[in-house]
Design brief:
The complex is a heterodimer. Chain A is an alpha/beta fold. Chain A is built from 12 helices and 9 strands. The chains are: A alpha/beta, B alpha/beta. The complex binds pyridoxal-5'-phosphate. Chain B: This is Tryptophan synthase beta chain.
Chain lengths: 265, 401
């Protein structure tokens, strides 16, 4: 796919939708998890996703719970690599909403931040999340990402002190990824109380879009998350279904229930 | 005594093996590449460590634990018969004689005391050979803390004795079933667990790896090996310092502790890695488990599983300070095979009546090889850290011999 997204595209897109009163939804998919994985991207967008988080699998995902670990393992067992995922992406029709890659820093360093960001850009990816790259280590990638027109979104956590939260919000691009809970990715029975607190603390200092992620598993939780932040990221709940064999149509239906829940707000 | 024992020679850079640079960097390596959820916890550990090391109360308490509980100082044993066979003068720094049987206890007592000071009631640890797990379980029992130890399923099988020891000491041993089911995956799992447990638990990292301040802090807690050995060499060796200092390298904690005592001398420093786990010798730049260092990777940047007969060397990377020492040329890193290590273990047993840990046998295997091929000139003095005793490896050895 040839890329039509200009620098800052993720943020412009998300801001515009938010400012129009819409709660944002970013489902997650592990790249290469199944042979026809790019079909999920289209299904997500058709079901009302505002962006899609695309996981580039890493052998040692230190911030992921069992579901996304299993998805990464499955993808790697199929022999995929960052290169192959981006090549498959480039051949598929663009879903029409921004794609935000997420991966661990080792994969970024492997070819170097410049080459990595350029490759993302060529494949039509407009944003990037690196969960093991905190703000104080982000300079080298932030510069390369900016030069390539990739929005590098930073993560904030319930344990982050206020001053640091402000710095994260200031330096983040695209949106701020608010980690809802002190824990790894994975489905949870309820939205953690820390989610609301963190979103409120972030909101205090920035008008950049804030997406709540980690643990958001059901339409009710999405609705609640959407009340505290500008929107939600749904990862493990999507990937559990994919790993259980659910196809793009099944996921389209699931994402649509999340969409409706968010729209009810 | 220390100053007087120094031979004249080019003065190595003063900062070598001192405090790391800003933000926990050793040259271009190190750093704090932790998930944001762990950054504050790392900062708290750093702050507590900086305070503690300036506090005579903490230092005395640790020195007392090391003396009365761990059995320090450990002897410097001349390996008389083996030295004659090899044509070099080999001295063994006997970490195998510490309580629990390896150098791991030095670091763990330091961190456990720090955890107590921070008000933490529980220790989290990862372990490969089980020695760090046993040390953690021991320190927890001693100080009235809880301990949860993550261990790869494969290591649980080959280190059954240590698993039993940990459980007997009251620790919870959690089997890790992901990836290679060895140390790398146990470390990932311990980190994931810590993310959800920062409030009441201290992550007691077992080597000079992990996010800042761990590589530095663990080296400082292991420095006791090098400092003692330095003083012992000053007393025993005509030249005051050995020509060569050798230690095995998994993550690199016993080597870092040993090297730290000699970084400012003319001694040549050699770290010995397992052929299948040679992060320093064959790794490339990457980030894993919180730090920027050298890791074994495939052509796509995926971390490669390490393989060593010594579970404690079964790690695909090396601590960031070792990457830096290598780049500076201050230390060199070499590899030996499983077979060489096993042969070295037998040779030490027969020549000196000491059964070494298979990890330590790697260091000895290189000494034996280098004494034979001129890598260690005849007559040179060699200090080698014997990081642990071989009891834990008996069943592995029994199957091979
Ligand atoms: C006896 C012994 N020596 C060496 C090592 C390697 O660790 P490091 O390189 O951190 O000293 C281990 C690790 O378990 C060990 O048990």
């Amino acid at each position: 796919m040839t890329n039509a997204l200009a620098p800052g595209a993720v943020e412009r897109h998300l801001r515009a939708r938010r400012d129009a009163g819409r709660r944002l939804l970013m489902p997650y998919i592990t790249g290469g998890v199944t042979p026809g994985w790019t079909d999920y991207l289209r299904a997500f967008a058709e079901a009302g996703a505002d962006a899609v988080e695309l996981g580039l699998p890493f052998s040692d995902p230190t911030l992921d719970g069992v579901t996304i670990q299993r998805a990464s393992e499955a993808a790697l067992a199929r022999g995929v690599s960052t290169r192959r995922i981006l090549a498959e992406l480039a051949e598929a029709p663009h879903p029409g909403v921004p794609l935000v890659a997420s991966t661990y820093y080792n994969l970024v360093l492997h070819d170097g931040p410049e080459a990595f960001c350029a490759a993302l850009r060529r494949a039509g990816v407009a944003g990037l999340i690196v969960p093991d790259l905190p703000v104080h280590e982000a300079d080298e990638l932030a510069d390369a990402a900016a030069a390539a027109g990739i929005d590098l979104a930073l993560l904030a956590s319930p344990a982050t002190p206020q001053a640091r939260l402000a710095e994260i919000a200031r330096r983040s691009r695209g949106f701020v990824y608010a980690v809802s809970v002190m824990g790894t990715t994975g489905e949870r029975a309820a939205l953690a109380a820390s989610a609301a607190e963190l979103a409120a603390r972030l909101r205090h200092g920035t008008d950049r879009p804030i997406l709540l992620g980690f643990g958001i598993s059901t339409p009710d939780q999405a609705r609640e998350g959407g009340r505290h932040a500008d929107g939600v990221v749904v990862g493990a709940a999507v990937m559990r279904r994919v790993l259980d064999g659910a196809g793009p149509d099944d996921l389209r239906a699931f994402i649509a229930t999340l969409r409706r829940a968010l729209d009810q707000e | 005594m220390r100053e007087a024992s120094l031979r004249p020679g080019p003065a190595p850079a003063a900062a070598t093996m001192g405090e790391p640079g800003p933000r926990g960097r050793f040259g271009g390596y190190g750093g704090r590449y932790a998930p944001e959820s762990l950054v504050e916890a790392c900062r708290e550990v750093e702050e507590a460590f900086r305070e503690a090391r300036e506090d005579p109360g903490f230092r005395n308490a640790l020195a007392e634990l090391l003396a009365l509980h761990a059995g320090r100082p450990t002897p410097l044993t001349p390996a008389g018969r083996l030295s004659r066979e090899l044509g070099v003068r080999l001295y063994l720094k006997r970490e195998d004689l510490t309580h629990t049987g390896s150098h791991k206890i030095n670091n763990v007592l330091g961190q456990a005391l720090l955890a107590t000071r921070m008000g933490r009631r529980r220790l989290i640890a990862e372990t490969g050979a089980g020695q760090h797990g046993v040390a953690t379980a021991t320190a927890a029992a001693l100080l009235g803390l809880e301990a949860t130890v993550f261990m790869g399923e494969r290591d649980i099988e080959r280190q059954a004795l240590n698993v039993f020891r940990m459980r007997m000491l009251g620790a919870e041993v959690v089997p890790v079933t992901t990836g290679s089911r060895t140390l790398k995956d146990a470390t990932s799992e311990a980190m994931r667990h810590w993310v959800g447990a920062t409030a009441g638990s201290h992550y007691c990292v077992g080597s000079v790896i992990g996010p800042d301040p761990y590589p530095w802090m663990v080296r400082e807690f292991q420095r006791v090996i090098g400092d003692e050995a330095r003083a012992q060499c000053a007393a025993e060796l005509p030249a005051g310092v050995p020509d060569h200092v050798v230690a095995c390298v998994g993550g690199g904690s016993n080597a870092a502790g040993t090297f730290a005592g000699f970084a400012d001398t003319t001694a040549r420093l050699t770290g010995v890695e397992a052929e299948g786990g040679a992060g320093a010798a064959r790794g490339r730049l990457g980030v894993l488990h919180g730090c920027r260092s050298l890791f074994l990777q495939d052509g796509d940047g995926q971390i490669v599983e390490a393989h060593s007969i010594a579970a404690g060397l079964d790690y695909p990377g090396v601590g960031p300070e070792h990457a830096h020492l290598r780049e500076l040329g201050r230390a060199r890193y070499v590899t030996v095979t499983d077979d060489e290590a096993v042969a070295a273990a037998v040779r030490l047993a027969r020549a000196e009546g000491i059964v070494p840990a298979l990890e330590s046998a790697h260091a000895l295997a290189w000494v034996i090889r280098a004494a034979g091929d001129g890598g260690l000139p005849a007559g040179s003095t060699v200090l080698m850290t014997l990081s642990g005793r071989g009891d834990k490896d008996i069943s592995t050895l029994k199957e091979l011999l």
